[in-house]
Amino acid sequence: MREIGPTAAAEVITRHKVRRITRRRVGAALASASGDDAALLQRFDAEIDRLGAPRETRGTDLDAQVAEFRSRTSDLPVRLMKGLGVRSWYPAGQRRDIGDADLWVPDMDSGLQVASMLRDLGFTYEPGEMPWLKRDMNGTLLGQFRMQHPAPDQVDVDIHIGPYSVRYCGLIEFDRSRENEVWTPLADEDNFCAVIGNAAGDCFIEAKAINDVVLAASRPLDFGYVVATLRQAGLTGFLNTVVDRVQEVCDLRDDQRATLRQLRTDDAPEDVPLAATDDDIRRTDLVTAHTRRVAESMTGDAAAAERIARNAEHAYGSPRSFRLRTSGGQPHRLPDMNPWTCVRLAPQPLIRRIANRHERVPVRGRHTRLAENLELIEVEDGDLLRFRDDVFLPTVDYLFCSKLVVAEPEAGAHEASA
Protein backbone atom coordinates (compact mmCIF):
# COMPACT_ATOMS: atom_id res chain seq x y z
CA MET A 1 0.00 0.00 0.00
CA ARG A 2 2.91 2.34 0.63
CA GLU A 3 4.03 1.73 -2.96
CA ILE A 4 0.73 2.13 -4.82
CA GLY A 5 -1.23 4.30 -2.37
CA PRO A 6 -4.51 3.73 -0.50
CA THR A 7 -6.80 4.43 -3.46
CA ALA A 8 -5.16 1.92 -5.80
CA ALA A 9 -4.92 -0.62 -2.97
CA ALA A 10 -8.63 -0.18 -2.21
CA GLU A 11 -9.44 -0.72 -5.89
CA VAL A 12 -7.54 -4.03 -5.81
CA ILE A 13 -9.46 -5.14 -2.70
CA THR A 14 -12.75 -4.16 -4.31
CA ARG A 15 -11.98 -6.03 -7.55
CA HIS A 16 -11.13 -9.12 -5.52
CA LYS A 17 -14.39 -8.79 -3.51
CA VAL A 18 -12.85 -9.09 -0.06
CA ARG A 19 -13.83 -5.69 1.33
CA ARG A 20 -15.44 -6.91 4.53
CA ILE A 21 -12.59 -9.14 5.63
CA THR A 22 -10.06 -6.44 4.75
CA ARG A 23 -11.89 -3.73 6.69
CA ARG A 24 -12.05 -5.96 9.74
CA ARG A 25 -8.28 -6.47 9.58
CA VAL A 26 -7.69 -2.76 9.01
CA GLY A 27 -9.75 -2.03 12.12
CA ALA A 28 -7.64 -4.45 14.15
CA ALA A 29 -4.42 -2.93 12.78
CA LEU A 30 -5.55 0.60 13.64
CA ALA A 31 -5.81 -0.37 17.30
CA SER A 32 -2.00 -0.47 17.53
CA ALA A 33 -0.99 1.84 14.66
CA SER A 34 0.20 5.40 15.06
CA GLY A 35 1.57 8.31 13.07
CA ASP A 36 1.88 7.89 9.31
CA ASP A 37 0.84 4.23 9.44
CA ALA A 38 -2.42 5.09 11.18
CA ALA A 39 -3.16 7.88 8.70
CA LEU A 40 -2.47 5.56 5.76
CA LEU A 41 -4.72 2.84 7.16
CA GLN A 42 -7.51 5.35 7.79
CA ARG A 43 -7.32 6.61 4.20
CA PHE A 44 -7.27 3.00 2.96
CA ASP A 45 -10.36 2.15 5.01
CA ALA A 46 -12.17 5.26 3.80
CA GLU A 47 -11.41 4.38 0.17
CA ILE A 48 -12.70 0.82 0.60
CA ASP A 49 -15.87 2.25 2.14
CA ARG A 50 -16.30 4.73 -0.71
CA LEU A 51 -15.81 2.15 -3.45
CA GLY A 52 -18.07 -0.42 -1.83
CA ALA A 53 -20.86 1.87 -0.63
CA PRO A 54 -23.06 1.77 -3.77
CA ARG A 55 -23.17 -2.03 -3.70
CA GLU A 56 -23.17 -2.67 0.03
CA THR A 57 -26.22 -0.47 0.61
CA ARG A 58 -28.20 -3.09 -1.31
CA GLY A 59 -29.29 -5.95 0.87
CA THR A 60 -28.35 -4.27 4.14
CA ASP A 61 -30.62 -6.73 5.95
CA LEU A 62 -30.02 -9.76 3.76
CA ASP A 63 -31.22 -12.41 6.20
CA ALA A 64 -34.54 -10.65 6.76
CA GLN A 65 -35.11 -10.36 3.03
CA VAL A 66 -34.31 -14.02 2.42
CA ALA A 67 -36.64 -14.94 5.29
CA GLU A 68 -39.45 -13.02 3.58
CA PHE A 69 -38.77 -14.76 0.28
CA ARG A 70 -38.93 -18.09 2.08
CA SER A 71 -42.17 -17.27 3.89
CA ARG A 72 -43.85 -16.70 0.54
CA THR A 73 -42.50 -19.83 -1.19
CA SER A 74 -41.87 -22.23 1.69
CA ASP A 75 -43.17 -25.22 -0.28
CA LEU A 76 -40.82 -24.77 -3.25
CA PRO A 77 -37.49 -26.66 -3.62
CA VAL A 78 -35.36 -23.51 -3.36
CA ARG A 79 -31.71 -23.87 -2.34
CA LEU A 80 -29.19 -21.21 -1.35
CA MET A 81 -26.33 -21.00 -3.81
CA LYS A 82 -22.81 -19.53 -3.95
CA GLY A 83 -22.45 -16.71 -1.40
CA LEU A 84 -25.62 -17.48 0.53
CA GLY A 85 -24.46 -21.06 0.98
CA VAL A 86 -20.70 -20.65 1.25
CA ARG A 87 -20.81 -17.89 3.88
CA SER A 88 -21.46 -20.53 6.56
CA TRP A 89 -17.97 -21.92 5.86
CA TYR A 90 -16.34 -18.74 7.18
CA PRO A 91 -15.13 -18.50 10.79
CA ALA A 92 -17.05 -16.36 13.26
CA GLY A 93 -16.32 -12.68 12.68
CA GLN A 94 -15.21 -13.21 9.07
CA ARG A 95 -17.91 -11.97 6.69
CA ARG A 96 -17.83 -13.03 3.07
CA ASP A 97 -18.70 -10.35 0.52
CA ILE A 98 -22.05 -11.18 -1.11
CA GLY A 99 -22.97 -9.27 -4.23
CA ASP A 100 -26.52 -10.61 -4.62
CA ALA A 101 -28.78 -13.43 -3.46
CA ASP A 102 -28.25 -16.51 -5.64
CA LEU A 103 -31.09 -19.03 -5.46
CA TRP A 104 -31.22 -22.40 -7.21
CA VAL A 105 -34.26 -24.45 -8.14
CA PRO A 106 -34.18 -27.76 -10.02
CA ASP A 107 -36.98 -27.11 -12.52
CA MET A 108 -38.48 -24.30 -14.60
CA ASP A 109 -41.95 -24.38 -13.02
CA SER A 110 -40.49 -23.82 -9.54
CA GLY A 111 -38.13 -21.13 -10.82
CA LEU A 112 -40.94 -19.18 -12.43
CA GLN A 113 -42.98 -19.39 -9.23
CA VAL A 114 -40.04 -17.78 -7.39
CA ALA A 115 -39.82 -15.11 -10.10
CA SER A 116 -43.56 -14.52 -9.74
CA MET A 117 -43.16 -14.05 -5.99
CA LEU A 118 -40.43 -11.47 -6.58
CA ARG A 119 -42.58 -9.63 -9.14
CA ASP A 120 -45.33 -9.44 -6.49
CA LEU A 121 -42.78 -7.79 -4.18
CA GLY A 122 -41.96 -5.13 -6.77
CA PHE A 123 -38.86 -6.71 -8.30
CA THR A 124 -38.29 -6.28 -12.02
CA TYR A 125 -35.79 -7.49 -14.60
CA GLU A 126 -32.18 -6.34 -14.67
CA PRO A 127 -31.87 -4.50 -18.04
CA GLY A 128 -28.14 -5.18 -18.26
CA GLU A 129 -28.61 -8.93 -17.80
CA MET A 130 -31.91 -9.97 -19.30
CA PRO A 131 -33.47 -13.35 -18.43
CA TRP A 132 -32.46 -16.24 -20.64
CA LEU A 133 -33.54 -19.78 -21.49
CA LYS A 134 -31.79 -22.86 -22.88
CA ARG A 135 -32.57 -26.56 -23.10
CA ASP A 136 -30.22 -29.35 -22.05
CA MET A 137 -29.48 -32.33 -24.29
CA ASN A 138 -32.65 -34.02 -23.00
CA GLY A 139 -34.78 -31.04 -24.00
CA THR A 140 -35.41 -29.84 -20.44
CA LEU A 141 -35.68 -26.08 -19.96
CA LEU A 142 -33.06 -24.30 -17.88
CA GLY A 143 -32.28 -20.65 -17.43
CA GLN A 144 -31.68 -17.66 -15.23
CA PHE A 145 -33.78 -14.72 -14.09
CA ARG A 146 -31.86 -11.81 -12.58
CA MET A 147 -34.22 -9.56 -10.62
CA GLN A 148 -33.69 -6.15 -9.07
CA HIS A 149 -35.75 -3.85 -6.88
CA PRO A 150 -35.98 -0.05 -7.16
CA ALA A 151 -35.49 0.35 -3.39
CA PRO A 152 -31.75 0.84 -2.66
CA ASP A 153 -31.79 -1.44 0.40
CA GLN A 154 -33.17 -4.47 -1.47
CA VAL A 155 -30.72 -7.12 -2.60
CA ASP A 156 -30.59 -8.19 -6.25
CA VAL A 157 -31.71 -11.80 -6.76
CA ASP A 158 -30.40 -14.34 -9.28
CA ILE A 159 -32.70 -17.32 -9.84
CA HIS A 160 -30.72 -20.20 -11.37
CA ILE A 161 -32.97 -22.87 -12.85
CA GLY A 162 -31.81 -26.41 -13.61
CA PRO A 163 -28.20 -27.23 -14.54
CA TYR A 164 -25.83 -24.30 -13.92
CA SER A 165 -24.71 -22.94 -17.29
CA VAL A 166 -21.02 -22.00 -17.53
CA ARG A 167 -19.43 -20.08 -20.38
CA TYR A 168 -21.03 -20.90 -23.73
CA CYS A 169 -22.38 -24.42 -23.27
CA GLY A 170 -20.93 -26.05 -20.15
CA LEU A 171 -23.48 -27.44 -17.69
CA ILE A 172 -22.92 -28.26 -14.01
CA GLU A 173 -25.43 -30.72 -12.55
CA PHE A 174 -26.16 -30.33 -8.83
CA ASP A 175 -27.00 -33.98 -8.27
CA ARG A 176 -26.22 -33.89 -4.54
CA SER A 177 -28.82 -31.17 -3.99
CA ARG A 178 -31.91 -32.71 -5.55
CA GLU A 179 -33.31 -34.20 -2.35
CA ASN A 180 -36.47 -32.67 -0.91
CA GLU A 181 -34.89 -29.94 1.19
CA VAL A 182 -36.18 -26.38 0.89
CA TRP A 183 -34.47 -23.06 1.53
CA THR A 184 -31.23 -24.65 2.72
CA PRO A 185 -27.79 -24.30 1.12
CA LEU A 186 -26.81 -26.54 -1.75
CA ALA A 187 -24.77 -29.56 -0.70
CA ASP A 188 -21.23 -28.39 0.04
CA GLU A 189 -19.91 -30.26 -2.99
CA ASP A 190 -22.40 -28.55 -5.31
CA ASN A 191 -21.75 -25.12 -3.81
CA PHE A 192 -18.03 -25.69 -4.33
CA CYS A 193 -18.73 -26.57 -7.98
CA ALA A 194 -20.83 -23.40 -8.28
CA VAL A 195 -17.96 -21.28 -6.95
CA ILE A 196 -15.56 -22.83 -9.48
CA GLY A 197 -18.11 -22.51 -12.28
CA ASN A 198 -18.71 -18.85 -11.50
CA ALA A 199 -14.98 -18.10 -11.58
CA ALA A 200 -14.62 -20.08 -14.82
CA GLY A 201 -17.37 -18.00 -16.39
CA ASP A 202 -15.55 -14.83 -15.37
CA CYS A 203 -12.28 -16.25 -16.76
CA PHE A 204 -10.30 -14.93 -13.81
CA ILE A 205 -9.66 -15.95 -10.22
CA GLU A 206 -10.42 -13.42 -7.50
CA ALA A 207 -9.36 -13.50 -3.86
CA LYS A 208 -12.91 -14.28 -2.71
CA ALA A 209 -12.90 -17.51 -4.72
CA ILE A 210 -9.44 -18.38 -3.38
CA ASN A 211 -10.72 -17.94 0.18
CA ASP A 212 -13.68 -20.21 -0.61
CA VAL A 213 -11.34 -22.91 -1.92
CA VAL A 214 -9.05 -22.71 1.12
CA LEU A 215 -12.03 -23.09 3.45
CA ALA A 216 -13.40 -25.98 1.38
CA ALA A 217 -10.05 -27.74 1.84
CA SER A 218 -10.84 -27.91 5.57
CA ARG A 219 -14.30 -29.44 5.09
CA PRO A 220 -15.21 -33.11 4.62
CA LEU A 221 -16.21 -32.81 0.97
CA ASP A 222 -16.38 -35.68 -1.48
CA PHE A 223 -13.75 -34.30 -3.85
CA GLY A 224 -14.10 -37.29 -6.16
CA TYR A 225 -17.67 -36.17 -6.82
CA VAL A 226 -16.46 -32.58 -7.32
CA VAL A 227 -13.87 -33.60 -9.92
CA ALA A 228 -16.36 -35.83 -11.76
CA THR A 229 -18.97 -33.06 -11.82
CA LEU A 230 -16.55 -30.44 -13.09
CA ARG A 231 -15.08 -32.86 -15.64
CA GLN A 232 -18.54 -33.32 -17.14
CA ALA A 233 -18.71 -29.53 -17.53
CA GLY A 234 -15.25 -29.41 -19.12
CA LEU A 235 -13.75 -27.45 -16.22
CA THR A 236 -10.99 -29.67 -14.82
CA GLY A 237 -8.31 -27.62 -16.62
CA PHE A 238 -9.63 -24.48 -14.97
CA LEU A 239 -9.84 -26.32 -11.64
CA ASN A 240 -6.15 -27.23 -11.95
CA THR A 241 -5.34 -23.54 -12.43
CA VAL A 242 -7.35 -22.62 -9.33
CA VAL A 243 -5.52 -25.24 -7.25
CA ASP A 244 -2.15 -24.02 -8.54
CA ARG A 245 -2.98 -20.38 -7.74
CA VAL A 246 -4.18 -21.24 -4.24
CA GLN A 247 -0.98 -23.14 -3.53
CA GLU A 248 1.11 -20.26 -4.90
CA VAL A 249 -0.45 -17.42 -2.91
CA CYS A 250 -1.74 -19.03 0.30
CA ASP A 251 -0.01 -20.25 3.45
CA LEU A 252 -1.64 -23.68 3.64
CA ARG A 253 -1.48 -26.39 6.26
CA ASP A 254 -0.19 -29.80 5.23
CA ASP A 255 -3.68 -31.30 5.45
CA GLN A 256 -5.09 -28.57 3.20
CA ARG A 257 -2.37 -29.19 0.61
CA ALA A 258 -3.13 -32.90 0.72
CA THR A 259 -6.83 -32.21 0.23
CA LEU A 260 -6.22 -29.91 -2.73
CA ARG A 261 -4.09 -32.57 -4.39
CA GLN A 262 -7.29 -34.64 -4.64
CA LEU A 263 -8.64 -32.00 -7.02
CA ARG A 264 -5.65 -32.12 -9.38
CA THR A 265 -6.09 -33.97 -12.69
CA ASP A 266 -3.87 -34.59 -15.71
CA ASP A 267 -5.67 -31.95 -17.79
CA ALA A 268 -3.68 -28.94 -18.96
CA PRO A 269 -4.28 -25.88 -16.75
CA GLU A 270 -5.92 -22.88 -18.37
CA ASP A 271 -4.06 -19.59 -18.70
CA VAL A 272 -6.28 -17.62 -16.32
CA PRO A 273 -5.16 -14.48 -14.44
CA LEU A 274 -5.75 -13.41 -10.88
CA ALA A 275 -8.45 -10.69 -10.96
CA ALA A 276 -10.16 -9.16 -13.96
CA THR A 277 -8.23 -7.77 -16.92
CA ASP A 278 -9.15 -6.00 -20.15
CA ASP A 279 -7.78 -8.89 -22.20
CA ASP A 280 -10.92 -9.78 -24.16
CA ILE A 281 -8.90 -11.83 -26.65
CA ARG A 282 -7.68 -14.19 -23.92
CA ARG A 283 -11.22 -14.62 -22.61
CA THR A 284 -12.59 -15.31 -26.09
CA ASP A 285 -9.86 -17.87 -26.78
CA LEU A 286 -10.51 -19.64 -23.45
CA VAL A 287 -14.26 -19.83 -24.05
CA THR A 288 -13.85 -20.97 -27.67
CA ALA A 289 -11.49 -23.80 -26.72
CA HIS A 290 -13.74 -24.84 -23.84
CA THR A 291 -16.80 -24.80 -26.11
CA ARG A 292 -15.08 -27.02 -28.67
CA ARG A 293 -14.28 -29.66 -26.02
CA VAL A 294 -17.70 -29.62 -24.37
CA ALA A 295 -19.69 -29.50 -27.61
CA GLU A 296 -17.83 -32.50 -29.02
CA SER A 297 -18.47 -34.41 -25.79
CA MET A 298 -22.17 -33.52 -25.99
CA THR A 299 -22.72 -34.18 -29.68
CA GLY A 300 -20.06 -36.76 -30.52
CA ASP A 301 -19.52 -34.81 -33.74
CA ALA A 302 -16.22 -32.94 -34.25
CA ALA A 303 -17.54 -30.94 -37.21
CA ALA A 304 -20.63 -29.83 -35.29
CA ALA A 305 -18.45 -28.95 -32.30
CA GLU A 306 -16.26 -26.77 -34.52
CA ARG A 307 -19.31 -24.88 -35.81
CA ILE A 308 -20.53 -24.34 -32.26
CA ALA A 309 -17.05 -23.16 -31.21
CA ARG A 310 -16.98 -20.64 -34.06
CA ASN A 311 -20.35 -19.31 -32.89
CA ALA A 312 -18.95 -18.99 -29.38
CA GLU A 313 -15.95 -17.09 -30.72
CA HIS A 314 -18.26 -14.68 -32.53
CA ALA A 315 -20.54 -14.26 -29.50
CA TYR A 316 -17.68 -13.47 -27.11
CA GLY A 317 -15.44 -11.63 -29.54
CA SER A 318 -17.94 -9.23 -31.10
CA PRO A 319 -19.91 -6.55 -29.25
CA ARG A 320 -23.67 -6.88 -29.56
CA SER A 321 -26.04 -3.95 -29.84
CA PHE A 322 -29.79 -3.69 -30.11
CA ARG A 323 -30.98 -3.48 -33.72
CA LEU A 324 -34.46 -2.88 -35.10
CA ARG A 325 -35.82 -4.37 -38.33
CA THR A 326 -38.56 -2.13 -39.67
CA SER A 327 -39.57 -4.04 -42.80
CA GLY A 328 -39.02 -7.26 -44.75
CA GLY A 329 -37.37 -10.44 -43.60
CA GLN A 330 -38.68 -13.69 -42.20
CA PRO A 331 -40.86 -13.86 -39.07
CA HIS A 332 -38.80 -13.74 -35.85
CA ARG A 333 -39.43 -17.22 -34.45
CA LEU A 334 -38.21 -18.70 -31.19
CA PRO A 335 -35.09 -20.68 -32.18
CA ASP A 336 -34.56 -24.29 -31.28
CA MET A 337 -32.95 -24.26 -27.85
CA ASN A 338 -30.02 -26.39 -26.70
CA PRO A 339 -27.03 -25.95 -24.35
CA TRP A 340 -25.26 -23.62 -26.81
CA THR A 341 -28.26 -21.52 -27.90
CA CYS A 342 -28.98 -18.90 -25.25
CA VAL A 343 -32.31 -17.18 -25.88
CA ARG A 344 -32.48 -13.83 -24.14
CA LEU A 345 -35.91 -12.60 -23.07
CA ALA A 346 -35.95 -8.89 -23.84
CA PRO A 347 -38.72 -7.16 -21.86
CA GLN A 348 -41.02 -5.50 -24.37
CA PRO A 349 -41.22 -2.19 -22.41
CA LEU A 350 -37.41 -1.96 -22.46
CA ILE A 351 -37.22 -2.41 -26.23
CA ARG A 352 -40.07 0.06 -26.73
CA ARG A 353 -38.10 2.68 -24.81
CA ILE A 354 -34.88 1.98 -26.71
CA ALA A 355 -36.68 2.05 -30.07
CA ASN A 356 -38.92 4.97 -29.07
CA ARG A 357 -41.95 2.99 -30.23
CA HIS A 358 -44.86 3.46 -27.85
CA GLU A 359 -47.90 2.65 -29.98
CA ARG A 360 -49.92 -0.52 -29.33
CA VAL A 361 -51.16 -2.87 -32.05
CA PRO A 362 -53.47 -5.72 -30.94
CA VAL A 363 -52.46 -9.12 -32.33
CA ARG A 364 -53.86 -12.63 -32.16
CA GLY A 365 -51.88 -15.83 -32.23
CA ARG A 366 -51.46 -19.42 -31.14
CA HIS A 367 -50.70 -19.88 -27.43
CA THR A 368 -48.49 -22.74 -26.21
CA ARG A 369 -47.65 -23.37 -22.57
CA LEU A 370 -43.90 -23.81 -22.02
CA ALA A 371 -43.88 -23.81 -18.21
CA GLU A 372 -45.66 -22.37 -15.16
CA ASN A 373 -47.17 -19.02 -16.27
CA LEU A 374 -44.86 -18.99 -19.32
CA GLU A 375 -46.44 -19.15 -22.76
CA LEU A 376 -45.24 -18.92 -26.32
CA ILE A 377 -47.44 -16.71 -28.51
CA GLU A 378 -46.98 -17.29 -32.24
CA VAL A 379 -48.23 -14.35 -34.30
CA GLU A 380 -47.82 -13.49 -37.97
CA ASP A 381 -44.59 -11.52 -37.60
CA GLY A 382 -42.88 -13.86 -35.15
CA ASP A 383 -42.98 -15.16 -31.60
CA LEU A 384 -43.49 -13.52 -28.24
CA LEU A 385 -43.17 -14.99 -24.77
CA ARG A 386 -45.43 -14.00 -21.90
CA PHE A 387 -44.77 -14.61 -18.23
CA ARG A 388 -47.75 -13.52 -16.14
CA ASP A 389 -48.51 -10.11 -17.70
CA ASP A 390 -44.92 -9.48 -18.81
CA VAL A 391 -44.29 -9.78 -22.54
CA PHE A 392 -40.81 -10.58 -23.88
CA LEU A 393 -39.19 -10.58 -27.30
CA PRO A 394 -36.98 -13.70 -27.54
CA THR A 395 -33.64 -13.05 -29.20
CA VAL A 396 -30.22 -14.56 -29.78
CA ASP A 397 -28.66 -11.83 -31.93
CA TYR A 398 -30.42 -8.74 -30.44
CA LEU A 399 -32.23 -8.04 -33.72
CA PHE A 400 -35.87 -7.13 -33.10
CA CYS A 401 -38.86 -6.83 -35.41
CA SER A 402 -40.57 -3.44 -35.06
CA LYS A 403 -44.01 -5.04 -35.43
CA LEU A 404 -43.33 -7.31 -32.44
CA VAL A 405 -42.07 -4.34 -30.43
CA VAL A 406 -45.51 -2.68 -30.64
CA ALA A 407 -47.58 -5.90 -30.64
CA GLU A 408 -50.18 -6.20 -27.88
CA PRO A 409 -51.08 -9.92 -27.70
CA GLU A 410 -54.55 -10.90 -26.62
CA ALA A 411 -55.18 -13.26 -23.76
CA GLY A 412 -55.76 -16.75 -25.05
CA ALA A 413 -56.27 -20.31 -23.96
CA HIS A 414 -53.32 -22.66 -24.38
CA GLU A 415 -53.70 -24.83 -27.44
CA ALA A 416 -50.77 -27.10 -26.63
CA SER A 417 -47.88 -27.70 -24.27
CA ALA A 418 -44.22 -27.96 -25.18
Summarize the structure.
Pfam families: NTP_transf_5 (PF14907). The protein is of the alpha/beta class. It has 15 helices and 19 strands.
Please tell me what the overall shape is.
globular
Radius of gyration, in Å, reads 23 Å
**How many DSSP helices?**
15
Global structural class = alpha/beta
Helix content: 40-55%
Terminal CA distance reads 58 Å
Amount of beta strand: 15-25%
Major pleated sheet: 13 strands, mixed
Mean pLDDT: 91
Question: How many individual β-strands?
Answer: 19
Spans of at least 5 consecutive residues with low confidence: none
How many domains, as an integer?
4
Pfam families: NTP_transf_5
Protein name: Nucleotidyltransferase family protein
Structure explained in plain terms:
Helix content is 43%, strand content 19%. The protein has 418 residues and is an alpha/beta fold. It has four domains: 52 residues; 200 residues; 38 residues; 95 residues, no CATH class. Strands 1, 2, 3, 4, 5, 6, 9, 11, 13, 14, 15, 16 and 19 form a 13-stranded mixed beta sheet that branches. A two-stranded antiparallel sheet has the order 7-8. It has a two-stranded parallel sheet with strand order 10-17. β4 and β5 form a beta hairpin. The longest helix is centred in the N-terminal third of the chain and has 22 residues. It is globular.
